[in-house]
């Protein structure tokens, strides 16, 4: 009987999820490709002061698309996630300053190299470390998945240093600047750009760079051969007609003011807030959308699990307990990666990032909600059920008319606290490329290298929103009391 009562709710959830998954149709006259990238890897990939994706990779990709009359949908996210999207068929190709090596050729088909890079090793300007021999017993910061990290790791045993891995470039740089690690390895053009934008680091081997190899455009092995061929032919044409050199010069030899804005804007917190106000508001709005959708749907899912948890049937109670145990036990980021990157490879279908994010919140936050909702129902005096049954109500009627209303009243404060937790948990979804508030901050920092000020602004925005929710929680508690 409980299952029948819940069927309309399941149907509503299914319809909403289906609507979330529907994307806009591409222009039928042109093929549309999904291209993943790491948008925090300047000067190859980053956002400019107008929040447009730019960089060596972006300009080359735009030119290739123009010359071959196709369109593309860009999916910016962390490097490892971007690479996995292609390997699992979620994206058609990746362009992200990605180095060509033998291990990657086993998984991907790769273009001709469009840039030859070298690896620099870097310390603070006043560091006592002057040579690689001085790294013995020291800590070195590396960014996961990069050729620079592979090169640095290959020297670990020879020079006797320890390694500390990071997922993003800015955090890695700041770890060295703050003295938590002693050095780092990075692609030379990337660290050049960062130093131009004020990162207080120094390249130690500019005249003798380590070998990194060529940078390429990658597609899944055995697929998108036409796209790869178009890339190679257009790259050759661009090198002959001078377009390629213009792109390289634009990002490596020109002033960075065109991309990061006025230097004065980046020197003060107020200036950063003013020059990036649109980006901050856009990120906050995406966070609000995720939070509201996640809160509503997770609450419904949690209510279903809570009701199932007090059902007469042992099987239904067992299903509720199992679901709560599984999704409350999984880390949110692991669940997000599993839904967005893992499931498509098994199901053979693409899952939009926003849909994957909502599903992640529904399952994880809904499991926590289900646990305290079930606890609220169980906290209702057992005599209430007995009294209702003695008046002739069935177990189902007594549950919905007597137990559920009283139990929900008990759990209202927990619901509001869970809303706050859901809001904060949306920041983790930046890992799968959702452009919410945290990802917005990451992109701004990649552009202007002002990590302290940008993250201070992000922290204050979160604090203001959470404070408002806390006030609402206290007001609601007083009303109910």
TrEMBL record:
It is found in: Cell membrane. The keyword Membrane applies. It holds the Pfam family BPD_transp_1. It is a multi-pass membrane protein. InterPro entries: AA_ABC_transptr_permease_3TM, ArtM/GltK/GlnP/TcyL/YhdX-like, MetI-like, MetI-like_sf, SBP_3_CS, Solute-binding_3/MltF_N. Residues 1-28 form the signal peptide. The chain crosses the membrane at residues 290-311, 323-343, 452-472. Belongs to the bacterial solute-binding protein 3 family. CDD domains: TM_PBP2 (cd06261). This is ABC transporter substrate-binding protein/permease. The keyword Membrane applies. Keywords: Cell membrane, Membrane, Signal, Transmembrane, Transmembrane helix, Transport. Residues 284-473 form the ABC transmembrane type-1 domain.
């Amino acid at each position: 009987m409980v299952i029948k009562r819940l069927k309309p709710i399941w149907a509503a959830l299914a319809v909403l999820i289906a609507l979330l998954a529907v994307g806009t149709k591409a222009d039928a006259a042109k093929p549309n490709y999904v291209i993943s990238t790491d948008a925090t890897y300047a000067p190859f990939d980053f956002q400019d002061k107008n929040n447009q994706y730019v960089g060596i990779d972006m300009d080359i990709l735009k030119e290739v698309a123009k010359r071959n009359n196709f369109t593309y949908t860009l999916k910016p996210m962390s490097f490892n996630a971007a690479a996995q999207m292609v390997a699992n068929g979620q994206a058609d190709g990746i362009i992200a300053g990605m180095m060509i090596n033998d291990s990657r050729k086993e998984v991907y088909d790769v273009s001709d190299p469009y840039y030859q890079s070298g690896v620099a090793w870097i310390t603070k300007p006043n560091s006592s470390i002057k040579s690689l021999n001085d790294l013995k017993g020291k800590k070195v910061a590396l960014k996961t998945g990069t050729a620079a990290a592979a090169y640095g790791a290959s020297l670990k045993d020879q020079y006797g240093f320890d390694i500390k891995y990071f997922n993003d470039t800015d955090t890695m740089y700041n770890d060295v600047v703050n003295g938590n690690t002693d050095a780092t390895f990075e692609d030379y053009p990337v660290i050049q750009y960062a130093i131009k934008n004020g990162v207080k680091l120094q390249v130690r081997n500019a005249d003798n760079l380590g070998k990194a190899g060529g940078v390429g455009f990658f597609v899944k092995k055995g697929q998108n051969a036409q796209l790869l061929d178009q890339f190679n032919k257009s790259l050759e044409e661009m090198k002959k007609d001078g377009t390629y050199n213009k792109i390289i010069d634009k990002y490596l030899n020109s002033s960075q003011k065109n991309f990061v804005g006025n230097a004065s804007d980046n020197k003060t917190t107020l200036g950063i807030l003013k020059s990036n106000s649109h980006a901050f508001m856009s990120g906050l709005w995406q966070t609000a959308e995720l939070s509201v959708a996640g809160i509503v749907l997770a609450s419904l899912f949690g209510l279903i699990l809570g009701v199932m948890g007090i059902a007469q049937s042992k099987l239904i109670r067992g299903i509720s307990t199992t679901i709560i145990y599984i999704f409350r036990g999984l880390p949110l980021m692991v669940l997000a990666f599993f839904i967005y990157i893992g499931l498509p490879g098994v199901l053979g279908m693409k899952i939009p990032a926003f849909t994957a994010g909502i599903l992640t919140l529904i399952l994880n936050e809904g499991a926590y909600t289900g646990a305290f909702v079930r606890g609220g129902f169980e906290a209702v005096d057992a005599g209430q059920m007995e009294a209702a049954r003695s008046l002739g109500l069935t177990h189902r009627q007594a549950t919905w008319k007597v137990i559920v209303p009283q139990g929900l009243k008990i759990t209202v404060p927990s619901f509001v606290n869970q809303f706050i937790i859901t809001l904060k948990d949306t920041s983790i979804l930046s890992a799968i490329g959702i452009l919410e508030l945290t990802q917005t901050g990451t992109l701004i920092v990649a552009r202007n290298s002002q990590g302290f000020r940008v993250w201070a602004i992000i922290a204050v925005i979160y604090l203001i929103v959470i404070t408002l929710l806390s006030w609402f929680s206290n007001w609601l508690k007083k009303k109910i009391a």
